């Protein structure tokens, strides 16, 4: 039996999501951009995903653009805003952003954008006061993670969004890890743009969305097809949209008390274990633990052989041997950053999976330390 404790990398699809997606492949074979009846049926099916997103977040269907995932959404959000506001100042990002946003920023820099970096505090949150001070000097866009994918630390997006609205500076938020873990109310949190990816909450891979609030200075980054009300080029992934809509109807609740009990039990069993961001607001499903003297890749390999799917950080960078840029930005020494393990759960994670990990983990840590 395998234990899936890597939900931040991807959430498993339920049987009903799989069935809805497969049925959509059978039922909606028309191109959603076509004017005939098959195309209209496909377009109506895709529209239900936008309606579901709007209903969940207290926004408007017309403000949602279906994409291939968060990477595309972040590129479109950042570059599409910068193209309109390139003369207004630099792009402001934190040093703890996901690699997808760092890639978009690198491309913007190649095109002439100035990038200024907001520090992470030792707590794991981006420095809100520094962000505000930099924004008051002028900025084309501020783009920040709401909840960090590696540490689970949640930064104060609502407050910064209100301050940036007053300054009339667009705010792009990476909410990839947020849906299904805490409520998002775009009616009271005035972010300008928001990116998400369906497979992080149980939708199929290859479907995501970008929220662009009405009135935001933005233009399409991809051109040529006129899809999504002329805001994105590319054939609409109708079956993925149907799966996304179904997944949104099934969002469960992450068990935060269980996760925190797991952490306290783990620290009792491994006394020198460090929980990253332990005193900060965090996602209810995420634990980033550091075990001094234990190389995370060795530990991950051992746990994988024992049937546990865990991570040493972001799934997009876990194939690398470099330490996490997020942990380094928090001021964690490189030696310790090599010793981090991320355990992330979901609504359907059995209690027995965390219990089983607690049974195995102390012995495996002791074994690696003895060998090392």
Structure, explained:
- With 372 residues, the protein is an alpha/beta fold.
- It folds into two domains: 3-10 and 252-371, Aspartate Aminotransferase, domain 1 (Alpha-Beta Complex); 15-249, Type I PLP-dependent aspartate aminotransferase-like (Major domain) (Aspartate Aminotransferase, domain 2).
- It has 13 helices and twelve strands.
- The strands form three sheets. It has a seven-stranded mixed beta sheet with strand order 2-8-7-6-5-3-4, with helices on both faces. Strands 9-10-12 form a three-stranded antiparallel beta sheet. Strands 1-11 form a two-stranded parallel ribbon.
- The mean pLDDT is 95.
Keywords:
2 domains; globular; Aspartate Aminotransferase, domain 1; 372 residues; single chain; 13 helices; Aspartate Aminotransferase, domain 2; alpha/beta
């Amino acid at each position: 039996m395998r234990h899936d404790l890597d939900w931040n990398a991807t959430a498993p699809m339920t049987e009903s999501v799989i069935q809805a997606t497969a049925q959509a492949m059978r039922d909606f074979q028309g191109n959603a951009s076509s004017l005939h009846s098959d195309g209209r049926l496909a377009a109506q099916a895709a529209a239900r995903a936008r309606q579901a997103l709007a209903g969940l977040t207290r926004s408007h269907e017309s403000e949602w653009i279906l994409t291939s995932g968060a990477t595309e959404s972040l590129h479109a959000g950042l570059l599409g805003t910068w193209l309109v506001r390139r003369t207004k100042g630099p792009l402001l990002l934190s040093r703890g952003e996901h690699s997808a946003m760092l890639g978009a920023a690198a491309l913007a820099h190649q095109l002439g954008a100035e990038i200024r970096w907001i520090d992470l505090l030792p707590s794991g949150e981006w420095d809100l006061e520094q962000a505000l001070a930099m924004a008051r000097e002028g900025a084309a866009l501020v783009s920040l993670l709401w909840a960090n994918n590696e540490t689970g630390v949640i930064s104060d997006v609502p407050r910064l969004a209100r301050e940036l609205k007053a300054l009339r500076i667009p705010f792009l938020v990476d909410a990839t890890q947020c849906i299904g873990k805490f409520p998002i109310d775009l009616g009271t949190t005035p972010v300008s743009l928001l990116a998400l990816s369906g497979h992080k909450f149980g939708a199929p891979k290859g479907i995501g969305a970008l929220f662009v609030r009405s009135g935001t200075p933005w233009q399409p980054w991809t051109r040529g097809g006129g899809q999504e009300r002329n805001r994105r080029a590319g054939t609409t992934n109708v079956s993925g949209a149907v799966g996304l809509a179904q997944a949104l109807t099934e969002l469960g609740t992450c068990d935060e008390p269980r996760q925190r009990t797991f952490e306290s039990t783990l620290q009792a069993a491994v006394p020198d274990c460090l929980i990253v961001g332990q005193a900060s607001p965090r996602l209810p499903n995420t634990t980033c633990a550091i075990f001094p003297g234990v190389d995370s890749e060795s530990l991950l390999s051992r746990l994988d052989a024992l049937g546990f799917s865990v991570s040493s950080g972001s799934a997009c960078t876990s194939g690398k041997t470099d330490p996490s840029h997020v942990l380094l930005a928090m001021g964690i020494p490189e030696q310790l950053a090599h010793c981090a393990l991320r355990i992330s759960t979901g609504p359907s994670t059995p209690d027995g999976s965390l219990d089983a990990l607690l049974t195995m983990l102390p012995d495996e840590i002791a074994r690696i330390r003895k060998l090392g």
